[in-house]
Amino acid sequence: MDKENKHCGCPCHDSTENTCPKDGFCCPGRIPASVPNDQFCTPFNCPKPIPTPRFNSPNSPLPPNELNKLQACIEEINDTLRTIGNPREPGDPNQRQLQLHFRALRYSLVKVVVDCHNQEMEILGILEEAGANFIQVNTLDEKKFIPFEKICFLKHEDARSENIEHEQELLKINTCIRRDITLNFGEIVGRSPELINLFFGIPLHLFLQSFLGCEIEVKSEADEELLRGILCSVDEDQFRIQLCVEEMEEQKEKQEEEPIDPCKQEEDGIHTVNFNEVCFITVDS
Predict the structure, then answer these.
(1) CA dihedral of residues 6, 8, 14, 15 (deg, nearest 10)
(2) Residues 6+ apart with CB under 8 A from 130
(3) How far apart, in whole angstroms, are the C-alpha atoms of residue 267 and residue 113?
(4) Which pLDDT tens digit goes with each residue over 214-249?
(5) Which of 201, 219, 252 is the last residue of a domain?
(6) pTM to 2 decimals?
(7) For the domain that residue 249 is a member of, what is the CATH number?
(8) Which domain, by its residues, includes 182?
(9) Three-state SS across 174-218?
(10) How many domains does the chain fold into?
(11) Distance in angstroms (rounded) separating the CA atoms of residues 51 and 255
């Protein structure tokens, strides 16, 4: 242990022989007056402070290792309580826990077995993110979004992922951003899909809003072939794509062969896909 961490640095420690007791009281760490105080990134013009030494305020009497274990336990209990109190799907109260489990496997190589048309399809890639009801798997040049209910099996190749502890993802953020989140939580978090997903879990229909106007491919149970087109609009239960020329010709041929249901007629070149029929969605990286 270095000298700085071995001694409090307080005025009561005048010599290097006066160390803090191992399990007893220790004066808080002393911050010299020469270290500037950022005043939590306040935008107000405060009076120039008089240089004064400051003292850290310990947040627990526990040793660091015991405190870390306690905080991990508290976080796990809080996640469980959030799941019970505000389930994403009334029929599946464990969905938030499933998302947190998948997020613990991020950046691992995974093999996902997807159920589509009562057939199993394998997708191999890096698990990039997990939302409230989907996972994002990145292949060499594509991003694939797979709904939870279509996942039959997921295997991760990185054995270290099994022991990943809870990470405080906002621990090292900029002080000004930290101030904004603390004082304007709803406004700041509501503008960021990443923060929404971190705190609450973002559903697939909201996540796809950032891909409006992009070309996507859709594998659904309602269509045997892949649908390719421009994402036009996204609702909670469905989304619409402007089919590419080749896809439009195939759709017209299919409509000529099959009887037209007037309730399911689409505008020229526009195709509607229900989220409950989606096997996976592909976007170029």
Answers:
(1) 0
(2) 99, 102, 103, 105, 106, 136
(3) 34
(4) 999 999 998 888 999 999 999 999 999 998 766 555
(5) 201
(6) 0.68
(7) 2.30.30.600
(8) 175-201
(9) CHHHHHHHHHCHHHHHHCCHHHHHHHCCCCHHHHHHHHCCCEEEE
(10) 2
(11) 79
